[in-house]
Write a structure and sequence with these properties.
Elements: E1 7-9, E2 28-30, H1 34-37, E3 50-54, E4 69-73, E5 76-84, E6 87-89, E7 91-93, E8 99-101, E9 110-118, E10 124-132, E11 138-140, E12 142-147, E13 150-151, E14 157-158, E15 164-168, H2 174-180, E16 181-186, E17 191-197, E18 200-205, E19 214-219, E20 225-227, E21 230-232, E22 236-242, E23 246-251, E24 256-261, E25 264-270, E26 278-280, E27 286-288, E28 294-297, E29 300-307, E30 326-333, E31 340-343, E32 360-362, H3 364-373, E33 379-383
Parallel strand pairs: 1-2, 11-21, 14-22, 23-33, 31-32
Antiparallel strand pairs: 3-4, 4-8, 5-6, 5-9, 7-8, 9-10, 12-13, 12-15, 15-18, 16-19, 17-18, 19-22, 20-21, 23-24, 24-25, 26-27, 28-33, 29-30, 30-31
């Protein structure tokens, strides 16, 4: 007996016929076609369009350093216009889809923001808002110093003792100012701040800079409150390098100055330092004839410098310490009070005795070599002197132990 089997086709609605061994066609069963004929409507939820602007509309005292940010939900951002009077603020769309202003804003200005977005149907949504930036009572400017006598030249090389020196145009809140300062060094080193006064701050690492060090300084004070009603006028930055590490070590009792470059002794020079003792100046000031001890930093160099006893208070020609103005050659200054390494052809006790009024006397050839090879920021460490250089007499930063620096 030949078996017949039923083949059922689902919703396709077509008849299938199977023939086995030449037998008669099997019975075909057709699936209902109702599903193909029925039409269903799918409801798509409407997503509300949300446009938001930061700073919020009506905000006041906004920092001009804060960017304007526009975000949108449920639509595509089409345009953003930011204006203040006739000035237009530029901006761009970020990777996350938000729009952000790219330039700094100004103080004491009102900004109008008009943002437009369109949804899938092409319908537009517009948001208009405005805010006002803070209006300072006073603005503070930032400059960079090599020392009190000269500015730091961006991109130039300085010596291994050169601290970072940042000068504000008026007294500032020290904690707020330090927060705004970013110092990046290569190789990386830790450092500390020291405030010379209410508007001048120094920063130095624990040890002298290594040769080849690169230092970058960013002072981000735009929009930063630096005191009561006082804000930073604009951000400032600089950078400098240390070409090589030059350390000169002067021994008071050996009457000798040895110069090391990157740790290698390159020159030994006979010298004569301050004769010692003290006197009283014309205005009653105390005058010491000891050359100050400790690490000094080169402040400047002068091919010829006029020196006289009147420069430090001895004006009476009858005073045994008096001497008239004289042009001195190859002068390398290490303190504000007037200590130099310089040529002293009249001093015939170089390497034997200390007879100067406080400077480091050298032969003409040695003083010329120092003048030609030293740079601002190089270190002159005077050892075995009974008198220590003060931190504010030049750059006496390194004469203060690091654990006490800044205190």
């Amino acid at each position: 007996m030949i078996q017949r089997r039923k083949v059922i086709i689902g919703t396709l609605g077509a008849a299938a016929v199977a023939t086995i061994g030449g037998s008669a066609p099997a019975t075909a069963i057709t699936a209902p076609a109702a599903a193909a004929d029925r039409e269903e409507k799918v409801s798509v939820p409407v997503v509300p369009v949300r446009l938001s602007v930061t700073p919020a509309s009506g905000a006041t005292a906004v920092s001009p350093a804060n960017p304007i940010v526009v975000t949108v939900e449920g639509a595509a951002l089409r345009s953003v216009d930011v204006t203040s009077g006739g000035t237009k603020v530029s901006g761009s769309v970020q990777p996350d889809g938000t729009w952000q202003s790219t330039g700094d804003l100004d103080y004491g200005k009102t900004y109008k923001v008009v943002a437009t977005a369109t949804d899938g149907s092409g319908a537009a949504t517009v948001k208009v808002s405005s805010f006002t930036t803070v209006k300072p009572q006073r603005l503070v400017e930032v400059t960079f110093r090599a020392n009190a006598m000269s500015s730091l030249k961006k991109g130039h090389a300085y010596g291994a003792g050169q601290p970072v020196i940042i000068a504000f145009s008026r007294a500032v809140n020290k904690a707020a100012a330090e927060k705004a300062i970013e110092i990046t060094t290569s190789p990386a080193v830790e450092g500390k701040f020291y405030w010379a006064d209410g508007r001048t701050v120094h920063w130095r690492p624990e040890k002298y800079w290594a040769g080849g060090s690169a230092i970058t300084v960013n002072v981000n004070v735009l929009g930063v409150k630096l005191g009561s009603g006082v804000y930073g006028k604009t951000n400032a930055s600089t950078r400098f390098t240390v070409g090589r590490q030059l350390i000169a070590i002067t021994d008071y009792k050996a009457h000798l100055t040895n110069v090391f470059i990157d740790g290698k002794l390159v020159r030994s020079m006979k010298c004569s330092l301050g004769k010692g003792g003290s006197t009283t100046g014309a205005n009653g000031q105390h005058i010491s004839y000891w050359t100050t001890g400790g690490p000094h930093v080169v402040l400047s160099k002068e091919r010829v410098h006029s020196m006289s006893s009147a420069s430090y208070g001895i004006t009476d020609p009858n005073d045994p310490n008096y001497y008239a103005p004289e042009d001195i050659e190859y002068c390398t200054r290490i303190t504000y009070s007037g200590e130099f390494l310089h040529a002293a052809p009249w001093n015939h006790s170089l390497g034997r005795a200390n007879l100067s009024h406080g400077c480091v006397n050298l032969s003409v050839s040695d003083a010329k070599w120092v003048y030609e090879n030293f740079m601002v920021g190089d270190v002159v460490d005077i050892r075995r002197s009974p008198r220590t250089v003060k931190i504010d007499n030049g750059l006496g930063d390194w004469a203060v132990p690091f654990d006490k620096y800044g205190h």
